[in-house]
Amino acid sequence: MSEYYQKLLENNKKWVESQLAVDKDFFKDLAKGQNPQLLWIGCSDSRVPANEIVGAKPGEVFVHRNIANMVVHSDMNMLSVLDYAVNVLKVKHVIVCGHYGCGGVKAAMGNQSIGIIDNWIRHIKDVYRLHHVHLDTIADETTRFNTFVELNVKEQVFDLAKTSIVQGAWRNGQDLTLHGWVYGLNSGFVTDLEVNISFEKDLDDVYQLKF
Ligand code: CO
């Protein structure tokens, strides 16, 4: 077994010890159940860890991560996480957190095939197509890339609002707000894109469901 792999198991033992040193009931209490107020939809990128960024402990954040923090409305994984978070855990906030320098978003701006992932990245290309008039006017590539990252997050927030899950919760009077953030790999700070939506009236007519 590799040294790296052994180290992971050792690290786990140390982590358990350190948690118990602070609170001997830490795991006993966590095992009783979870009551997170936040669903985090983020990128799979190893540099964007949900809990650490917001200073949250285990039990505080329900997490879904995929390449480029996408809300794809036919993705059973995303829908199941969202449904459980909203209808069972009754989270009050959903944050879609993208990040500058996102490899998935960068790939979507280019034409290079990189395998089966091309089909996932197509969802991001659809966002580019939606905003291409604006994006194509930005000559500086880094600025265009950063703007695309932000627009992609905003679009995913709107895609959340279009789901029957979120609209159903709003219709039931549930306190649920959607947010869009971008994380800076260079600084550690998040920027709130202020696309906070808490009612379906913020959506185009055609997406508003009647129950
Ligand atoms: Co990314």
TrEMBL record:
Keyword Oxidoreductase: no
EC number: 4.2.1.1
Cofactor annotation: Zn(2+)
UniProt KW ATP-binding keyword: no
Domain of life where this protein originates: Bacteria
Known catalytic reactions: hydrogencarbonate + H(+) = CO2 + H2O
UniProt keyword terms in alphabetical order: Lyase, Metal-binding, Zinc
Family: Belongs to the beta-class carbonic anhydrase family.
Record PANTHER family: CARBONIC ANHYDRASE (PTHR11002)
NCBIfam families: PRK10437.1
Stated name of the protein: carbonic anhydrase
Species of the source: Flavobacterium erciyesense
Name of the coding gene: can
